[in-house]
């Protein structure tokens, strides 16, 4: 009897907490324990309806490489789940991914979209479809008007709004593997007055992307597909602050006057490197660097570095730039002369990061024009009459492998210590095996012996 009174007292103390606290406690359960939240309703009368106000995430990933019957069973299980959650007042996220689409599934997906947008009023909705037979799901007309969505991701769908679009609270929009037109894109953007982030992945059909909203500040484009190689995608986005281009994006036109507010740019481009496209791709990269020369923060991928080295061999001089922060991939001996020609174009450079994760990237294109011995000779004998008057910090991160086996690190460190006149800190963040400890110690002593033009420069090694 005494034990029962103690248990009851504990239950009372918990049940007497405000609803907000109890709901917060239930919301801390992992999303795969969603149904445990519902089961809390049997604890007592006090808990009976609390679960309805707990934020829930519904996440459905179709199995990979399963049979048609397995997919049909999984599809049916989604309907059962939605019926189970029909009375929940707080479904925040609803995601369906990797559905191998067929036209016969259109009505099923319509029901899911209706549940998410009209019944549950979710804040985040993602629909990812896999193309199996060139059939494409058409996003339903009723879904183009919604006031609850803040995040929307659609992959391999067909967008064709017959009327206006009204996603009044949408903050982030991701569209992937779908055809668009300039008219559809204009309708979508005009219907998203609060949009802040736009992501376009493997889209085709648009040739003019005009973004006039002051709130939309981040644009990401991956693998822009142009059916006509003579047609370019022109970007007019005067208020964009962050631009990310990755993959194959050869036909994108960016001019400084059209992206005047741009602060940060990341170029992780992939080039074909076919002989017939080489001149075109080189011209494209040069124009692109002119278009973003005014940004403060720049990040370049491995293929950009390789192409810049080729352009340097051909005598091209990069335009004067305003970069204050620059992030580059791991550098090889072949890259060094090109790098030393490229970096001084920005006298404002204050911080440099070199990420060694990309050290295994081959330099197939650059090898057509030169070799390591020739590049080392050029690097050692050429008078790089430059300095970095504002460069204060340099970081080499994710370095791995024995220091003695890397032929580019020592010359690189020596070069920067010589030319960075106000350098304060040079950090080398290394991942190494215990067997490399002696090698690292010996090479560290050599690095520390290099002359420095900046009296306050310190070289710091961070091992993990």
UniProtKB/TrEMBL annotation:
<protein>
    <submittedName>
        <fullName>F-box protein At5g03100-like</fullName>
    </submittedName>
</protein>
<dbReference type="Pfam" id="PF23622">
    <property type="entry name" value="LRR_At1g61320_AtMIF1"/>
</dbReference>
<feature type="domain" description="FBD">
    <location>
        <begin position="385"/>
        <end position="462"/>
    </location>
</feature>
<dbReference type="InterPro" id="IPR006566">
    <property type="entry name" value="FBD"/>
</dbReference>
<dbReference type="InterPro" id="IPR036047">
    <property type="entry name" value="F-box-like_dom_sf"/>
</dbReference>
<dbReference type="InterPro" id="IPR032675">
    <property type="entry name" value="LRR_dom_sf"/>
</dbReference>
<dbReference type="InterPro" id="IPR053781">
    <property type="entry name" value="F-box_AtFBL13-like"/>
</dbReference>
<dbReference type="InterPro" id="IPR001810">
    <property type="entry name" value="F-box_dom"/>
</dbReference>
<dbReference type="InterPro" id="IPR055357">
    <property type="entry name" value="LRR_At1g61320_AtMIF1"/>
</dbReference>
<dbReference type="Pfam" id="PF00646">
    <property type="entry name" value="F-box"/>
</dbReference>
<dbReference type="InterPro" id="IPR050232">
    <property type="entry name" value="FBL13/AtMIF1-like"/>
</dbReference>
